[in-house]
Write a structure and sequence with these properties.
By secondary structure, the protein is α+β, with helices and mostly antiparallel strands. The protein contains 7 helices and 20 strands. The longest helix has 44 residues.
Length: 423
C-alpha cells in the first residue's frame, strides 16, 4: 500500500482545517441571524396578542422580507389583515399557507372562505367551505350556514329599498364607529387622533358633536373628563333616563385566562358632556369578559358579549338583571341568538327587540346585523338584509327614533377604515 508523502499529508491537514474554519464561520454567521429572526417574531407575536394589528403587520412584513417566514407567521399576518378590514391581503397570505400544504389545517380553508365572502367572491368561498367540511369529514355547522347563505344569496336583497343608507360627513380616514345620541349630542368612537395606530379599533376614543352638525364637515371633539384613557375604549352604552354611560375598555396588561383584557366601567354624563371618573364594574361569580354592552331604558337590564366557557361559539350574548347589588341572574341568550361564531355590539330597542352583529348565522359576508324579539321564545334571529348588510363588516346598529338610526360598516366606497352610516 502506497504511503502518502509529507507534503500531501500537510495539504490534507490544511484542507480539513480550512473546512472546519469555514463551517464554524458559517454557523457563527447564522447564529445572530437566527437570533434576530427570533427576536422579531417575539415582538410581532406580542403585538398580535395585544391586538395591535397594524404594528404587528409591520413586524411580520419585516420578517418576511428578510427571512421569508413560515406558515404560522403567514397565518397570523392574514388574521391581522382580516381584523383591520383588508380581506384581499388576508386572502393572499391564507392562500400562501395552503400552497405549502392544502390539507394541513382545515381552519385555514374556513378563514379563506370568510375573507372571500367579504369580497363578494361567493362561489370561490363556497369551494373553501366544502373543502373545510371534507377535511373535517363531517358537516360543520358554521360552514353549512355560510354555504346556505351563498346558495340563497338573493334573499338578502328582497327588501333592499326599505332602508336608505348614507355615509356621514364627520367620518374620517381612520375608524369611526358605534354611534348613539343623547339629547342634542351625537356620540361615537374613533381612532382619528391615534396617529400611527388609527387603524386599530382597540385604541379608539369617545367623541361628541352636536347632532345638527353630523352631516357637516365639522371637527368633533373628544369627550371631556376622564372618559378616554391611554387604553382603548372599544364599546359603550348610554342610559338616557339616568345620564349613565357604560364604557368597555381593552387593557392588554389585564389579559388573563378569564377576561382577555376587557373591562366594563360606569360613569355619568354631566353638563356640557363632562364625564365623571369611570368606576370599574365588578361582577361576583362571573370572572369572564363583559364587553360591548347595551342596557334597557331603565338601566335595570343589561345585554353584553362574553367569551365565557360553556357558550355556543366564540363570543356569545348574555343578559342579566342589573341592580344596586350588581349583576344578578346572568343567562346565555341561547342558540336562537348565539352561534358557532361571534355575537357582538348589541343594541336593545324598546326593551324587547335585540339587534346585534354576528359572523356565525350566515349572510352577505363578514359581520351582519341581525334582530331578535326577546319576548318571543320561538322567534329566531333574522338578517336585516341589504343595504344595512353588505359583504364587508356591518355592526353597531343604533335606532335614534322610529326606524331611523345609524350603523357602522367598512364597506367599499367609505371615507376611512370603518364609517358611520345613517339610515
Amino acid at each position: 500500500m502506497m504511503k502518502s508523502s509529507p507534503k500531501i499529508m500537510f495539504n490534507k491537514r490544511m484542507l480539513v482545517l480550512f473546512i472546519t474554519i469555514c463551517v464554524a464561520g458559517t454557523t457563527m454567521a447564522q447564529f445572530p441571524v437566527f437570533k434576530r429572526e427570533q427576536r422579531l417574531t417575539k415582538q410581532a407575536t406580542e403585538l398580535f396578542r395585544e391586538k395591535k394589528y397594524v404594528k404587528a403587520i409591520d413586524k411580520y412584513k419585516e420578517i418576511i422580507s428578510r427571512y421569508d417566514g413560515n406558515p404560522d407567521l403567514w397565518y397570523n399576518l392574514a388574521v391581522c389583515y382580516q381584523e383591520i378590514g383588508q380581506p384581499d391581503r388576508a386572502q393572499l397570505y391564507y392562500s400562501r399557507v395552503l400552497k405549502v400544504d392544502d390539507e394541513a389545517n382545515p381552519i385555514v380553508h374556513l378563514a379563506l372562505g370568510k375573507v372571500l365572502m367579504m369580497q363578494g367572491k361567493y362561489e370561490e368561498a363556497r369551494e373553501q367551505f366544502i373543502k373545510y367540511n371534507d377535511l373535517l369529514e363531517y358537516n360543520d355547522q358554521l360552514a353549512m350556514r355560510y354555504i346556505a347563505s351563498i346558495e340563497n344569496i338573493d334573499r338578502y336583497f328582497t327588501d333592499s329599498t326599505f332602508f336608505q343608507e348614507e355615509s356621514l360627513a364627520i367620518n374620517s380616514p381612520a375608524s369611526d364607529f358605534g354611534a348613539s345620541t343623547l339629547d342634542n349630542s351625537f356620540y361615537f368612537l374613533s381612532t382619528r387622533d391615534r396617529k400611527k395606530d388609527f387603524s386599530e379599533r382597540y385604541t379608539s376614543d369617545l367623541y361628541t358633536t352636536p347632532t345638527s352638525e353630523i352631516e357637516e364637515d365639522t371637527e368633533p371633539k373628544k369627550l371631556r373628563g376622564p372618559a378616554n384613557s391611554r387604553f382603548g375604549e372599544v364599546g359603550y352604552a348610554i342610559v338616557p333616563k339616568r345620564n349613565e354611560i357604560y364604557i368597555c375598555r381593552f387593557r392588554p396588561e389585564k389579559q388573563d385566562q378569564y377576561t382577555l383584557g376587557y373591562s366594563l366601567y360606569k360613569a355619568y354624563i354631566g353638563h356640557n358632556n363632562d364625564i365623571t371618573r369611570p368606576e370599574e364594574v365588578t361582577v361576583d361569580r362571573f370572572k369572564f369578559a363583559i364587553a360591548y354592552p347595551t342596557l334597557s331604558s331603565s338601566g335595570n337590564r343589561i345585554v353584553f358579549s362574553s367569551d365565557a366557557p360553556g357558550g355556543y361559539g366564540g363570543w356569545d350574548l348574555y343578559t342579566a338583571k342589573y341592580t344596586r347589588n350588581g349583576f344578578e341572574d346572568i343567562q346565555n341568550l341561547g342558540d336562537k341568538v348565539n352561534s358557532a361564531g361571534d355575537e357582538l355590539y348589541a343594541f336593545l330597542m324598546n326593551d324587547s327587540i335585540l339587534f346585534f352583529a354576528t359572523d356565525g348565522h350566515g349572510g352577505l359576508g363578514g359581520f351582519d346585523v341581525y334582530s331578535k324579539n326577546l319576548n318571543n321564545d320561538d322567534d329566531y334571529a333574522r338578517n336585516m338584509g341589504y343595504p344595512v348588510n353588505s359583504p364587508a363588516n356591518d355592526y353597531a346598529i343604533y335606532f335614534d327614533s322610529g326606524l331611523s338610526g345609524y350603523f357602522t360598516s367598512n364597506r367599499e366606497g367609505g371615507k376611512g377604515d370603518d364609517d358611520i352610516y345613517q339610515f
